[in-house]
Design a protein that fits this description.
- The complex is a heterodimer of chains A (281) and B (137).
- In chain A, 41% of the residues lie in helices and 24% in strands.
- By secondary structure, chain A is α+β, with helices and mostly antiparallel strands.
- In chain A, the strands form two sheets. In chain A, strands 1, 2, 3, 4, 5, 6 and 7 form a seven-stranded antiparallel β-sheet that branches. A five-stranded antiparallel β-sheet of chain A has the order 9-8-12-11-10, sandwiched between helices.
- The longest helix of chain A has 27 residues.
- Chain A starts with a helix and ends with a helix.
- Chain B starts with a helix and ends with a helix.
- Chain B has a five-stranded antiparallel β-sheet, with helices on both faces.
- Chain B has 137 residues and is an alpha+beta fold.
- The chains are: A alpha+beta (281), B alpha+beta (137).
- At the A-B interface, helix 1, helix 7, strand 10 and helix 8 of A face helix 2, helix 3, strand 3, strand 4 and helix 4 of B.
- Strand 10 of chain A pairs antiparallel with strand 3 of chain B.
Chain lengths: 281, 137
Protein backbone atom coordinates (compact mmCIF):
# COMPACT_ATOMS: atom_id res chain seq x y z
CA UNK A 1 0.00 0.00 0.00
CA UNK A 2 1.45 3.37 -0.99
CA UNK A 3 1.89 6.19 1.49
CA UNK A 4 -0.82 8.22 -0.28
CA UNK A 5 -3.38 5.43 -0.05
CA UNK A 6 -2.36 4.81 3.52
CA UNK A 7 -2.87 8.43 4.50
CA UNK A 8 -6.17 8.68 2.64
CA UNK A 9 -7.56 5.65 4.44
CA UNK A 10 -6.46 6.94 7.83
CA UNK A 11 -8.15 10.27 7.07
CA UNK A 12 -11.37 8.71 5.85
CA UNK A 13 -11.60 6.56 8.95
CA UNK A 14 -10.89 9.54 11.20
CA UNK A 15 -13.47 11.78 9.52
CA UNK A 16 -16.10 9.03 9.64
CA UNK A 17 -15.45 8.62 13.34
CA UNK A 18 -15.70 12.36 13.94
CA UNK A 19 -19.04 12.93 12.19
CA UNK A 20 -21.99 12.81 14.60
CA UNK A 21 -24.63 10.54 13.12
CA UNK A 22 -27.58 12.47 14.46
CA UNK A 23 -27.99 15.75 16.31
CA UNK A 24 -31.34 15.80 18.10
CA UNK A 25 -33.18 19.13 18.26
CA UNK A 26 -35.73 19.75 21.00
CA UNK A 27 -37.86 22.67 22.16
CA UNK A 28 -37.39 23.96 25.70
CA UNK A 29 -40.45 24.50 27.85
CA UNK A 30 -40.17 27.95 29.44
CA UNK A 31 -42.77 30.58 30.24
CA UNK A 32 -40.58 33.55 31.17
CA UNK A 33 -37.04 34.91 31.16
CA UNK A 34 -36.00 33.37 34.49
CA UNK A 35 -37.77 30.16 33.62
CA UNK A 36 -35.87 30.01 30.32
CA UNK A 37 -32.46 30.54 31.95
CA UNK A 38 -33.26 27.87 34.51
CA UNK A 39 -34.31 25.49 31.73
CA UNK A 40 -31.01 26.14 29.92
CA UNK A 41 -29.00 25.53 33.08
CA UNK A 42 -31.01 22.38 33.75
CA UNK A 43 -29.89 21.12 30.34
CA UNK A 44 -26.30 21.73 31.47
CA UNK A 45 -27.01 19.96 34.75
CA UNK A 46 -28.07 16.90 32.75
CA UNK A 47 -24.91 16.97 30.63
CA UNK A 48 -22.07 14.74 31.80
CA UNK A 49 -19.97 14.10 28.68
CA UNK A 50 -18.44 17.15 26.90
CA UNK A 51 -21.10 18.70 24.67
CA UNK A 52 -21.70 21.89 22.72
CA UNK A 53 -25.28 22.86 23.56
CA UNK A 54 -26.73 25.26 20.99
CA UNK A 55 -29.84 27.23 21.98
CA UNK A 56 -31.70 29.16 19.29
CA UNK A 57 -34.75 31.43 19.61
CA UNK A 58 -37.41 32.05 16.95
CA UNK A 59 -35.78 35.41 16.18
CA UNK A 60 -32.45 33.75 15.41
CA UNK A 61 -30.55 34.69 18.59
CA UNK A 62 -28.16 31.93 19.51
CA UNK A 63 -25.95 30.88 22.41
CA UNK A 64 -23.56 27.96 22.41
CA UNK A 65 -22.58 26.52 25.78
CA UNK A 66 -19.59 24.24 26.20
CA UNK A 67 -20.76 21.93 28.98
CA UNK A 68 -19.37 18.84 30.68
CA UNK A 69 -19.75 17.15 34.06
CA UNK A 70 -22.77 19.34 34.89
CA UNK A 71 -20.61 22.43 34.46
CA UNK A 72 -20.57 25.41 32.15
CA UNK A 73 -17.07 26.04 30.79
CA UNK A 74 -17.83 28.79 28.29
CA UNK A 75 -20.73 30.56 26.63
CA UNK A 76 -20.63 32.14 23.19
CA UNK A 77 -23.50 34.33 22.05
CA UNK A 78 -24.46 35.49 18.58
CA UNK A 79 -24.44 39.08 19.93
CA UNK A 80 -21.36 41.21 20.57
CA UNK A 81 -20.40 39.57 23.86
CA UNK A 82 -17.98 36.99 22.42
CA UNK A 83 -16.96 34.06 24.61
CA UNK A 84 -17.51 34.44 28.37
CA UNK A 85 -16.39 32.24 31.21
CA UNK A 86 -16.98 34.14 34.45
CA UNK A 87 -20.23 33.32 36.28
CA UNK A 88 -21.67 36.90 36.20
CA UNK A 89 -20.94 37.22 32.48
CA UNK A 90 -22.50 33.82 31.80
CA UNK A 91 -25.71 34.82 33.57
CA UNK A 92 -25.73 38.22 31.83
CA UNK A 93 -25.37 36.55 28.44
CA UNK A 94 -28.18 34.13 29.24
CA UNK A 95 -30.41 37.01 30.43
CA UNK A 96 -29.87 38.87 27.17
CA UNK A 97 -30.58 35.73 25.21
CA UNK A 98 -33.73 34.88 27.17
CA UNK A 99 -35.26 38.25 26.25
CA UNK A 100 -35.94 36.74 22.83
CA UNK A 101 -38.57 34.27 24.04
CA UNK A 102 -41.07 32.64 23.56
CA UNK A 103 -39.66 29.57 21.83
CA UNK A 104 -36.14 28.17 22.34
CA UNK A 105 -34.78 25.06 20.67
CA UNK A 106 -31.74 23.15 21.84
CA UNK A 107 -29.33 20.91 19.94
CA UNK A 108 -26.60 18.88 21.60
CA UNK A 109 -23.46 17.70 19.79
CA UNK A 110 -20.04 16.43 20.80
CA UNK A 111 -17.41 19.18 20.60
CA UNK A 112 -14.50 18.99 18.13
CA UNK A 113 -11.43 17.29 19.56
CA UNK A 114 -9.69 20.68 19.79
CA UNK A 115 -12.30 22.02 22.25
CA UNK A 116 -11.34 21.05 25.76
CA UNK A 117 -12.46 22.37 29.17
CA UNK A 118 -10.47 25.34 30.46
CA UNK A 119 -10.47 26.06 34.19
CA UNK A 120 -12.94 24.54 36.62
CA UNK A 121 -16.11 25.81 34.97
CA UNK A 122 -19.27 26.57 36.97
CA UNK A 123 -21.73 24.03 38.32
CA UNK A 124 -25.12 24.56 36.70
CA UNK A 125 -26.84 24.28 40.08
CA UNK A 126 -24.62 27.06 41.52
CA UNK A 127 -25.55 29.28 38.59
CA UNK A 128 -29.25 28.58 39.16
CA UNK A 129 -28.80 29.64 42.80
CA UNK A 130 -26.94 32.78 41.69
CA UNK A 131 -29.94 33.78 39.58
CA UNK A 132 -31.86 34.64 42.73
CA UNK A 133 -28.88 36.07 44.60
CA UNK A 134 -27.90 39.80 44.71
CA UNK A 135 -25.80 41.21 41.83
CA UNK A 136 -22.21 39.88 42.00
CA UNK A 137 -19.06 42.00 42.12
CA UNK A 138 -18.32 43.50 38.69
CA UNK A 139 -15.67 42.25 36.26
CA UNK A 140 -13.89 39.39 38.04
CA UNK A 141 -13.20 38.11 34.54
CA UNK A 142 -10.78 40.96 33.83
CA UNK A 143 -8.76 40.14 36.94
CA UNK A 144 -8.62 36.52 35.88
CA UNK A 145 -7.42 37.47 32.39
CA UNK A 146 -4.61 39.61 33.77
CA UNK A 147 -3.43 36.90 36.13
CA UNK A 148 -3.42 34.36 33.31
CA UNK A 149 -1.36 36.66 31.14
CA UNK A 150 1.50 37.20 33.61
CA UNK A 151 4.29 34.64 33.04
CA UNK A 152 5.35 32.56 36.04
CA UNK A 153 8.75 34.21 36.04
CA UNK A 154 7.31 37.74 36.12
CA UNK A 155 8.23 39.92 39.08
CA UNK A 156 5.65 40.30 41.83
CA UNK A 157 5.14 43.97 40.96
CA UNK A 158 3.31 43.52 37.68
CA UNK A 159 2.45 46.80 35.96
CA UNK A 160 -0.82 48.36 37.02
CA UNK A 161 -3.19 47.72 34.16
CA UNK A 162 -5.21 50.83 34.96
CA UNK A 163 -2.13 53.04 34.52
CA UNK A 164 -1.22 51.52 31.18
CA UNK A 165 -1.63 53.88 28.26
CA UNK A 166 -1.74 52.10 24.89
CA UNK A 167 -0.73 55.30 23.12
CA UNK A 168 2.80 55.10 24.62
CA UNK A 169 3.46 51.71 23.05
CA UNK A 170 1.84 52.68 19.80
CA UNK A 171 4.19 55.62 19.40
CA UNK A 172 7.26 53.47 20.09
CA UNK A 173 6.25 50.64 17.80
CA UNK A 174 4.92 52.94 15.13
CA UNK A 175 8.22 54.80 14.92
CA UNK A 176 10.06 51.55 14.20
CA UNK A 177 7.80 50.01 11.59
CA UNK A 178 5.75 52.89 10.20
CA UNK A 179 7.27 52.54 6.74
CA UNK A 180 6.14 48.96 6.25
CA UNK A 181 3.04 48.69 8.42
CA UNK A 182 -0.38 49.71 7.16
CA UNK A 183 -1.48 50.40 10.68
CA UNK A 184 -1.09 49.49 14.31
CA UNK A 185 -3.69 48.87 16.95
CA UNK A 186 -3.22 48.02 20.60
CA UNK A 187 -5.99 46.59 22.67
CA UNK A 188 -5.71 46.20 26.41
CA UNK A 189 -7.52 43.39 28.12
CA UNK A 190 -9.67 46.04 29.77
CA UNK A 191 -11.07 46.75 26.35
CA UNK A 192 -9.36 50.01 25.39
CA UNK A 193 -8.32 50.20 21.79
CA UNK A 194 -5.96 52.68 20.18
CA UNK A 195 -5.14 52.85 16.52
CA UNK A 196 -2.69 54.55 14.24
CA UNK A 197 -2.66 54.96 10.49
CA UNK A 198 -4.66 52.69 8.25
CA UNK A 199 -8.43 53.08 8.18
CA UNK A 200 -8.87 49.38 7.67
CA UNK A 201 -7.13 48.69 10.93
CA UNK A 202 -9.37 51.10 12.82
CA UNK A 203 -12.30 49.07 11.58
CA UNK A 204 -10.42 45.92 12.41
CA UNK A 205 -9.90 47.20 15.95
CA UNK A 206 -13.68 47.37 16.28
CA UNK A 207 -14.08 43.84 15.00
CA UNK A 208 -11.33 42.65 17.28
CA UNK A 209 -13.34 43.76 20.31
CA UNK A 210 -15.76 40.98 19.55
CA UNK A 211 -13.07 38.32 19.17
CA UNK A 212 -10.78 39.51 21.95
CA UNK A 213 -11.68 36.58 24.14
CA UNK A 214 -10.72 34.28 21.29
CA UNK A 215 -7.34 35.95 21.08
CA UNK A 216 -6.83 35.32 24.79
CA UNK A 217 -7.75 31.68 24.29
CA UNK A 218 -5.32 31.49 21.43
CA UNK A 219 -2.50 32.86 23.51
CA UNK A 220 -3.31 30.73 26.52
CA UNK A 221 -3.35 27.60 24.45
CA UNK A 222 -0.15 28.39 22.58
CA UNK A 223 1.55 28.86 25.96
CA UNK A 224 1.74 25.08 26.16
CA UNK A 225 3.64 24.85 22.90
CA UNK A 226 5.65 28.08 23.08
CA UNK A 227 6.02 29.22 26.68
CA UNK A 228 6.54 32.86 27.69
CA UNK A 229 6.03 36.01 25.68
CA UNK A 230 5.55 35.49 22.00
CA UNK A 231 4.65 37.23 18.79
CA UNK A 232 2.01 35.50 16.72
CA UNK A 233 1.60 36.44 13.07
CA UNK A 234 -1.41 35.35 11.03
CA UNK A 235 -1.09 35.61 7.31
CA UNK A 236 -3.99 34.84 4.98
CA UNK A 237 -4.10 32.53 1.98
CA UNK A 238 -4.43 35.37 -0.55
CA UNK A 239 -1.24 37.06 -1.64
CA UNK A 240 -2.62 40.62 -1.41
CA UNK A 241 -4.32 40.41 1.96
CA UNK A 242 -3.01 42.38 4.91
CA UNK A 243 -1.52 40.31 7.68
CA UNK A 244 -2.39 40.40 11.35
CA UNK A 245 0.11 40.12 14.17
CA UNK A 246 -0.40 40.15 17.88
CA UNK A 247 1.73 39.70 20.93
CA UNK A 248 1.05 37.97 24.18
CA UNK A 249 3.03 40.57 26.12
CA UNK A 250 1.30 40.81 29.47
CA UNK A 251 -1.99 42.65 29.44
CA UNK A 252 -2.13 43.92 25.89
CA UNK A 253 -2.68 42.65 22.38
CA UNK A 254 -0.76 44.43 19.68
CA UNK A 255 -2.21 44.18 16.21
CA UNK A 256 -0.22 45.14 13.18
CA UNK A 257 -1.68 45.15 9.70
CA UNK A 258 0.76 44.92 6.81
CA UNK A 259 1.09 43.48 3.34
CA UNK A 260 2.23 39.89 3.11
CA UNK A 261 5.39 40.78 1.21
CA UNK A 262 6.52 42.76 4.26
CA UNK A 263 6.15 39.85 6.65
CA UNK A 264 9.87 39.21 7.07
CA UNK A 265 10.86 42.90 7.61
CA UNK A 266 8.01 43.41 10.07
CA UNK A 267 9.06 40.34 12.01
CA UNK A 268 12.68 41.47 12.04
CA UNK A 269 11.66 44.92 13.28
CA UNK A 270 9.42 43.39 15.89
CA UNK A 271 12.14 40.94 16.92
CA UNK A 272 14.34 43.82 18.07
CA UNK A 273 11.48 45.37 20.07
CA UNK A 274 10.40 42.02 21.39
CA UNK A 275 13.88 40.95 22.46
CA UNK A 276 14.68 44.25 24.15
CA UNK A 277 11.38 44.09 26.03
CA UNK A 278 12.19 40.53 27.05
CA UNK A 279 15.57 41.57 28.36
CA UNK A 280 14.11 44.37 30.45
CA UNK A 281 11.67 41.97 32.04
CA UNK B 1 8.24 9.51 -2.51
CA UNK B 2 6.76 8.97 0.96
CA UNK B 3 5.68 11.55 3.48
CA UNK B 4 8.54 10.61 5.81
CA UNK B 5 11.12 10.96 3.04
CA UNK B 6 9.66 14.31 2.03
CA UNK B 7 9.76 15.62 5.59
CA UNK B 8 13.35 14.44 5.92
CA UNK B 9 14.32 16.20 2.68
CA UNK B 10 12.50 19.29 3.83
CA UNK B 11 14.37 19.40 7.15
CA UNK B 12 17.71 18.91 5.44
CA UNK B 13 17.02 21.96 3.26
CA UNK B 14 15.89 24.21 6.11
CA UNK B 15 18.75 25.67 8.18
CA UNK B 16 17.87 25.80 11.87
CA UNK B 17 14.86 23.51 11.48
CA UNK B 18 14.70 21.02 14.35
CA UNK B 19 11.31 19.44 13.69
CA UNK B 20 8.92 19.04 10.76
CA UNK B 21 5.42 17.60 10.93
CA UNK B 22 2.46 17.11 8.61
CA UNK B 23 -1.01 17.47 10.11
CA UNK B 24 -4.56 16.84 8.94
CA UNK B 25 -6.44 19.85 10.30
CA UNK B 26 -9.86 18.21 10.14
CA UNK B 27 -9.03 15.21 12.27
CA UNK B 28 -6.12 16.74 14.19
CA UNK B 29 -3.95 13.75 13.27
CA UNK B 30 -0.20 14.15 12.94
CA UNK B 31 0.35 12.16 9.75
CA UNK B 32 4.11 12.28 9.85
CA UNK B 33 6.90 13.89 11.82
CA UNK B 34 10.67 14.10 11.69
CA UNK B 35 12.74 15.52 14.49
CA UNK B 36 16.38 16.15 15.34
CA UNK B 37 15.71 14.82 18.80
CA UNK B 38 13.41 12.10 20.03
CA UNK B 39 9.80 13.25 20.11
CA UNK B 40 7.31 11.90 22.62
CA UNK B 41 3.71 11.03 21.75
CA UNK B 42 2.56 13.99 23.87
CA UNK B 43 4.79 16.38 21.94
CA UNK B 44 3.50 15.03 18.62
CA UNK B 45 -0.08 15.57 19.72
CA UNK B 46 0.68 19.00 21.13
CA UNK B 47 2.20 20.14 17.84
CA UNK B 48 -0.78 18.76 15.90
CA UNK B 49 -3.32 20.45 18.18
CA UNK B 50 -1.31 23.68 18.05
CA UNK B 51 -1.59 23.64 14.27
CA UNK B 52 -5.34 23.02 14.44
CA UNK B 53 -5.80 25.79 17.03
CA UNK B 54 -3.69 28.33 15.20
CA UNK B 55 -4.98 27.69 11.68
CA UNK B 56 -8.42 26.15 11.91
CA UNK B 57 -9.97 26.82 15.34
CA UNK B 58 -13.24 28.82 15.48
CA UNK B 59 -11.18 31.71 16.90
CA UNK B 60 -8.78 31.68 13.97
CA UNK B 61 -11.61 31.43 11.43
CA UNK B 62 -13.48 34.26 13.15
CA UNK B 63 -10.40 36.49 13.19
CA UNK B 64 -9.76 35.73 9.52
CA UNK B 65 -13.31 36.69 8.63
CA UNK B 66 -13.08 39.85 10.76
CA UNK B 67 -9.92 40.84 8.96
CA UNK B 68 -11.65 40.22 5.63
CA UNK B 69 -14.68 42.32 6.59
CA UNK B 70 -12.50 45.12 7.99
CA UNK B 71 -10.63 45.39 4.71
CA UNK B 72 -13.79 45.41 2.64
CA UNK B 73 -13.53 41.85 1.40
CA UNK B 74 -16.21 39.20 1.33
CA UNK B 75 -15.29 36.13 3.35
CA UNK B 76 -15.04 33.16 1.03
CA UNK B 77 -13.98 29.59 1.64
CA UNK B 78 -10.25 29.93 1.27
CA UNK B 79 -9.72 33.69 1.16
CA UNK B 80 -10.81 34.11 4.77
CA UNK B 81 -8.52 31.35 6.00
CA UNK B 82 -5.22 32.04 7.65
CA UNK B 83 -2.67 30.20 5.53
CA UNK B 84 0.45 30.86 7.52
CA UNK B 85 0.85 31.35 11.25
CA UNK B 86 4.24 32.19 12.72
CA UNK B 87 4.74 31.96 16.47
CA UNK B 88 7.95 33.56 17.60
CA UNK B 89 8.89 32.54 21.14
CA UNK B 90 12.02 32.95 23.21
CA UNK B 91 13.39 29.51 22.36
CA UNK B 92 11.62 28.46 19.19
CA UNK B 93 10.15 29.80 16.00
CA UNK B 94 7.11 27.84 14.84
CA UNK B 95 5.95 28.19 11.23
CA UNK B 96 2.56 26.57 10.60
CA UNK B 97 1.39 26.59 6.97
CA UNK B 98 -1.64 25.28 5.15
CA UNK B 99 -0.82 23.35 1.97
CA UNK B 100 -2.06 25.61 -0.83
CA UNK B 101 -3.49 22.84 -2.98
CA UNK B 102 -5.10 21.12 -0.03
CA UNK B 103 -5.91 23.65 2.72
CA UNK B 104 -7.04 20.99 5.17
CA UNK B 105 -3.46 19.79 5.51
CA UNK B 106 -0.69 21.76 7.21
CA UNK B 107 3.06 21.67 7.40
CA UNK B 108 4.48 22.46 10.85
CA UNK B 109 8.09 23.54 11.09
CA UNK B 110 9.96 24.26 14.31
CA UNK B 111 13.13 26.34 14.11
CA UNK B 112 15.68 27.37 16.72
CA UNK B 113 14.90 30.93 17.81
CA UNK B 114 18.28 32.20 16.61
CA UNK B 115 17.36 31.31 13.01
CA UNK B 116 17.02 34.55 11.02
CA UNK B 117 13.31 35.08 10.52
CA UNK B 118 13.47 35.97 6.83
CA UNK B 119 15.62 32.92 6.05
CA UNK B 120 13.29 30.62 7.94
CA UNK B 121 10.22 32.02 6.22
CA UNK B 122 11.57 31.99 2.69
CA UNK B 123 12.95 28.47 3.12
CA UNK B 124 9.69 27.28 4.68
CA UNK B 125 7.69 28.71 1.78
CA UNK B 126 9.95 26.90 -0.68
CA UNK B 127 9.36 23.69 1.21
CA UNK B 128 5.61 24.31 1.27
CA UNK B 129 5.54 24.80 -2.48
CA UNK B 130 7.15 21.40 -2.89
CA UNK B 131 4.46 19.76 -0.75
CA UNK B 132 1.79 21.55 -2.82
CA UNK B 133 3.33 20.43 -6.08
CA UNK B 134 3.87 16.78 -5.29
CA UNK B 135 0.36 16.42 -3.85
CA UNK B 136 0.85 14.05 -0.95
CA UNK B 137 -2.90 14.10 -0.43
Amino acid sequence: MSAQTDIREVLLAARKALKPAFVPIRTLKASGEMDCIEAILTEVHQTILPRLLTFVTMTGARVVIFAAERRVYSVRSSGEGGVVRAAPSILETLRNFAEDLPSVTVASAPPPSSVTPKGDGHLAQDLILSLKAPEPEPEPEIVEAVVEAVPESAPAEAPDVQDYEPEDDIEAVHDKISKIARGISIRTRRGRVSNRSADDLIQLGDHIKSVAEDISDHMNFLDEVVPGEKLIVHSKMEQEAPTLAFTSAEEKALLISFDKENLAPVMQAWQSIFRSDANIN
Amino acid sequence: MTLDTELETCMAKLPGCVRAGYVDLESGFMLGVKSETQISEDDRQLLAVAAVQALASPAAIEMGEALGRATGGEPTDTASLFGEVVVMGKETLHVLQRIETYPEHALCLVFRSDTPTDEALSAARGCLKRFSDIGLH
